[in-house]
Input
Amino acid sequence: MSRIVVPLDESENAEQALPWAAYIARALDCAIHLVCVWTHDEEIWLRAGVESGAPLERIAEALDDYLRGVRRRSELAGLVVTTEVRIGRVADHIREVCDEGETRYVVLTSHGAGGLRRFIQGSVADALVRTLHVPIFVVRPGQATPPIERMLVTLDGSETSECALGPARAVAAALGAKVELLRVSNPLAELPYGSLGPSGDLGDLSNELFRVAEEYLRQTALDGEAFEVRAGRPLDVIVGYAREKECDVIAMGTHGRGGVLRLALGSTADAVMRAADRVVLLVPERSASETQGSDR
Output
């Protein structure tokens, strides 16, 4: 049975990923696997109610008790839920967990005091995004709970960005959600240096870029999928579009070998993940052939 992995750290912020994981798991008929990784941080001793310097078995038992308590929460009722405690480097163990099981998605909270701040705002998140083979739903603390009624997929014409299409469409189909495709055109960034002649033909070139981008989206969209080309700074356009159209999830394809998304020289996915006030679905390039759902 395929599963959704949810990393937890005993904080309320991290646990805000649970309603989303449960919602997606029910739609896709997946199990949920709760994982808690102890990083030799003394704070975990304190949160677990175990004296500093206690044997590792005591820490493992305390964290296992915590996960068993989470397993009984009402939002997980009726789902197949498994738990696992590990000790070591967070990113390494989350990656191993995802590789060992039939993991379809990871759902985690982005940040918050005492929560998984390091997952998204430090090297751990960077490692996860670059090395995981499965799509990651990033949830911000305090975000509205499901349902998901509209999903936005950002595209830039590259195969990397198109990696988000399959997983986003699979989730949307299971939930009965609408899919919208967005391509951001930024003529000054896209045009090669020296391409503008002395007559100042930026307007004509911009129109041509828009025409090509719109035709690309028309060929990529499936029946019933809306699509639009907008001009501007990718981060601002993507976040603004999602708010305007009330998209519940922003889906983006990501590179796997040292970067995040091709848009805006590799910085856009990371920026959207931090700035968006809604769920962001990051789909690694490596997962494209492994995730169910049609790309075309």
Remarks:
- The beta strands are 3-8, 31-38, 81-87, 103-109, 136-139, 150-155, 178-185, 226-231, 249-254, 279-284.
